[in-house]
């Protein structure tokens, strides 16, 4: 929705000028611009490794030398015990073969590959194991409003006649007055008139008054459409009508008399309420952050059952709010759909980019919701938890296998039961351990909680 600017206000590069000429002063070079700072922020964000992957590396750093030591010790024990030298060598080789850490190496990537495939089928892309770890830690979830919880395009909400014309008559005059305007609200008025099949009269002598409205003639009669305060300067106080905090208003007067009022609003996505409820059930505390007016933001939050909401927030304000909660010890997830959300997306513990988002916002995110809408968001959080659980299960399978297999390969059962393993059997056991980890990961593909 449009945001009014006045002399002395700061503009962001890439802003769209709505309805008037504009003179501005360049205050910063490219490197110091908002976009430049965002690019620099992303440049520092190099590839991350999941904590669990670091754990596997630390285990492998101890495991490999330990296995070599056990193999050498096995050879020494059986050689000193008077065993056949070939049998001692065979047990050394069996220990090395059976303890190959393939299962440990497969535990994380196989789960991640399956999770990414399942997520793509369900409408989202999870970055990897590190992203899954961060998702599980999230406790507060910050939601952008426009384009995330709402459709991102204004629609006509209601028409209130204040004179001799009915709703269709007021809308037809408004459409005629707005026909030459490129304002987003004007396009919504024209679209509503088209949907109702109204005959829109021709307007002439259009005059745009920046930040106030437009003046024109419709069928030769003077008409003005715009802010109530602007029209009240000539007509006096506007008629009392019930307020709608979520709507933007276009007031109309014709030939010095109040004609009507149009209310337009950015409609909520149909899935928004169910998604917020599902996120709450998962233990996440949603919070609404938006650049829109406080009254609109508060109304949307109340309608969706979100306890905390903040309006008129610039990109740096969203980032500051994320930093504030993170430094207070609350892991934060951030959901956004554009470049202005990118700093907060990257700074948050877990960043989520809504489908159709700018490529930079998607690049800063740990999770990208494909298509349009946020319906898949609760499923994505569930998948992150399942992915991490699968990785832990895979590591447990690999660990239990090695704890049981290495002593047997070393000949621990020979004195009591005469049971020993050959290198070929060790190779088969090692292969089966890897297969068990892969099968464990494949279970994730069929999970539908």
Kindly report the average pLDDT value: 82
Strand-residue proportion: 15-25%
Count of DSSP H/I helices? 16
- Helix content range of the residues, please? 40-55%
Task: Give me the strand/helix succession.
Answer: HHHHEHEEHHEEEHEEHEHEHEHEHEHHH
Largest sheet: 7 strands, mixed
Got a strand count?
13
Query: First CA to last CA: what distance?
Result: 38 Å
Task: Explain what you see.
There is one protein chain. The chain is of the alpha/beta class and 449 residues long. Helices cover 50% and strands 16% of the residues. Helix 4 runs antiparallel to helix 14 and helix 14 runs antiparallel to helix 16. It starts with 33 loop residues before the first helix and ends with a helix.
Write the SSE topology.
Blueprint: H1 34-44, H2 51-80, H3 85-98, H4 102-122, E1 124-126, H5 129-137, E2 140-144, E3 155-161, H6 167-178, H7 184-195, E4 203-209, E5 213-218, E6 221-226, H8 228-235, E7 248-254, E8 257-265, H9 272-281, E9 285-289, H10 294-304, E10 308-310, H11 315-327, E11 332-336, H12 342-347, E12 350-353, H13 359-364, E13 367-369, H14 377-409, H15 414-417, H16 423-446
Parallel strand pairs: 2-9, 2-11, 9-10, 11-12, 12-13
Antiparallel strand pairs: 1-13, 3-8, 4-5, 5-6, 6-7, 7-8
Helix pairs in contact: 2-3, 3-14, 3-16, 4-14, 4-16, 5-14, 6-7, 14-16
